[in-house]
Design goal:
Radius of gyration: 32 Å
Distance between the termini: 79 Å
Structural class: alpha+beta
Largest sheet: 6 strands, mixed
Number of strands: 19
Strand order of the largest sheet: 12-15-16-17-19-18
Shape: elongated
Length: 565
């Protein structure tokens, strides 16, 4: 039985036997490791195709030796020696375990099916033993389910031209050939005729695919399904020239049932891949760009979550250019543009693992920020969001926002891939809160929060540790307060965002709950994180600022609040 190495994105593969049982590495025998390196170097990039070395990093680690790190692309590679490398995406499932990567595979397949034009919309994994099947067998099963649906609807038949020497007249007589063949057989007719027959090009390719899969599948379930499906193509001759037959296929309304099937047939018959690589050998590989999958997955569920609330959601929006003279050049195509009642929100998905180090900008690239700034100016909106996949290190992290000082705010949101609908509903809630769309239940909790912390700031026995530790932040996060560094409040009320005297002058003018919330949380964060010492929060002017802000929050959160003490 062929051997399988299962790895996840960013895992490091080594051939050093000293690290065979080390949890920080994945081990491959030296000959297989060498074959994988050869496979990687066998792919060449050009102007349209990225070099495989961008996705398979061949490196060297001291004391370990040569290493291979797989990134950005997931799927399955089968070496010529039969050894298989299965790469799964890095997905966070919280505290729950993922034995045999079963949940990862299910989520990954769910993500794949969101891609436009990706085969197997009818795929049902409920009866599959996903934890025991490699991706290639799962993809085979996807293909078979599509064929099963096709057979159920009825396979296509077409008029196929035949030449034959018949005992009866049919079609059109081929005079010269008839004379040659039948000089001594007056009872025969050499004719050409059209017959309505399932032996069309599409079916030829399907039968050839089924016959090939029957030879290479290692799954008993798949093999049984293939044998059953082959009976439906009994009158069809398998394709003998794959490329020529694929060139003949044009999908239209007459053969639309084959739209999803033909790409898969090409993958299996011609060892193609959904990747952008072009290989030099016949190693089988099914590789998928996670950046594109993630973008498509988020777009699909963003439309599902936001559209019922009146948002229009467009993906890969066109029409804006970085420069307009001497002609329109360098088109801008944000992943998502959300619009509602004159409001525009730009969102861009980035399949990248951020880390908790604000001094290194959490791993956010400078080029991405330049891109977001260009979006803001060209679309004339201040609301820009970067959507990164949630990982264990950034789970529960406080909100991350950047303000340019000239009307552009870029906020980061971590999408929980395993619970994407709940995650995007949380994002929708944050968008609504920016416009003051708060339900009464939330207002009641805001009032309770304000009263609780007014008492703490007024109490002379409350120490600095209690005020600067995580307790207030926990309450703010639970209520969905924004961490925008106080920029929104500052744009409206200037230095009242941090000066108690300035705040006392304008506090009665503040009527926007969300605006005041967005001032309180960042102000607390300053003393918790940026101040020279957290003890500064105990100074009278600073306690006064919090008391003023919290009393006003209590007053405008819908209840009768009277100041005391």
């Amino acid at each position: 039985m062929d051997k399988l190495l299962e790895v996840r994105e960013y895992d490091i593969i080594t051939a050093n036997t000293d690290y065979k049982n080390d949890n920080n590495f994945k081990y491959l025998p030296k000959d297989v490791f060498a074959a994988l390196v050869e496979f990687i170097h066998g792919f060449a990039g050009d102007e349209e195709n990225s070099d495989s070395l961008d996705f398979f990093r061949v490196g060297y680690k001291r004391n370990v030796g040569d290493t291979i790190t797989v990134k950005n692309y997931v799927g399955l590679i089968e070496m010529q020696n039969g050894y298989q490398i299965q790469v799964l995406p890095k997905i966070t499932f919280g505290e729950s375990e993922d034995p045999n990567n079963a949940n990862t595979k299910k989520t990954f397949l769910k993500m794949l099916r969101s891609m436009k034009g990706f085969p197997s919309k009818v795929f049902n994994d409920a009866s599959l033993k996903i934890d025991r099947m490699n991706l290639y067998e799962i993809f085979i099963n996807m293909y078979l389910q599509e064929i099963r649906l096709l057979v159920k609807h009825g396979i296509k038949s077409a008029y196929v031209q035949h030449e034959d020497n018949l005992r009866y007249y049919k079609g059109k007589l081929q005079v010269s050939r008839h004379i040659y063949e039948n000089a001594t057989h007056k009872e025969r007719f050499y004719v050409v005729y059209d017959e309505f027959h399932p032996d069309c090009t599409e079916n030829k390719l399907i039968k050839a695919t089924l016959m090939k899969l029957n030879k290479i599948t290692t799954s008993a379930d798949n093999a049984k399904e293939i044998r059953q499906l082959l009976t439906a193509f009994g009158r069809v001759e398998p394709s003998a020239n794959y490329q020529k037959d694929f060139d003949k296929v044009t999908i239209d309304r007459n053969n639309n049932d084959y739209k999803m099937i033909m790409p898969w047939s090409k993958v299996f018959l011609m060892n193609k891949s959904f990747s952008i690589f072009s290989g030099k050998d016949h190693t089988r590989a099914l590789l998928f760009p996670m950046e594109s999958i993630y973008e498509s997955y988020v777009a699909k569920y963003m439309k599902k979550v936001m559209t019922p609330d009146g948002w229009s959601v467009s993906s890969q929006d066109k029409g804006h250019f970085l420069f307009t003279e001497p002609r329109k050049q360098f088109s801008l195509r944000p992943d998502l543009v959300l619009q509602k009642e004159g409001r525009t929100v730009i969102m861009d998905t980035k399949w990248k693992k951020l880390f908790d180090n604000d001094r290194k900008n959490y791993g956010i690239s400078q080029s991405d920020m330049y891109q977001m700034y260009a979006y803001s100016k060209k679309y004339k909106t201040s609301e820009i969001w970067l959507l990164y996949p949630l990982n264990d290190e950034m789970k529960g992290h406080e909100d991350i926002c950047f303000d340019s000082g000239d009307g552009t705010t870029v906020c980061v949101f971590f999408v929980d891939i395993a619970n994407i609908e709940d995650s995007l509903n949380e994002l929708k809630k944050r968008l609504n809160k920016e416009r003051g769309c708060i339900v009464m239940d939330d207002i009641n909790h805001v009032y309770d929060f304000a009263v609780k912390w007014i008492e703490k700031f007024k109490d002379p026995n409350t120490n600095a540790m209690e005020l600067t530790d995580h307790y207030m932040a926990d309450d703010c996060k639970e209520l969905g307060f924004e961490m925008d560094c106080g920029h929104a409040f500052k744009r409206v009320y200037g230095n009242a965002a941090y000066d108690s005297e300035a705040l006392s002058m304008i506090i009665d003018e503040v009527t926007d709950i969300t605006l005041l919330e967005s001032a309180i949380y960042p102000r607390w964060r300053y003393f918790n994180h940026w101040a020279y010492t957290g003890e500064e929060i105990m100074e009278p002017k600073n306690r006064k600022w919090f008391i003023l802000a919290l009393e006003r929050l209590a007053a405008i959160s819908g209840k009768n609040y009277s100041k005391s003490g």
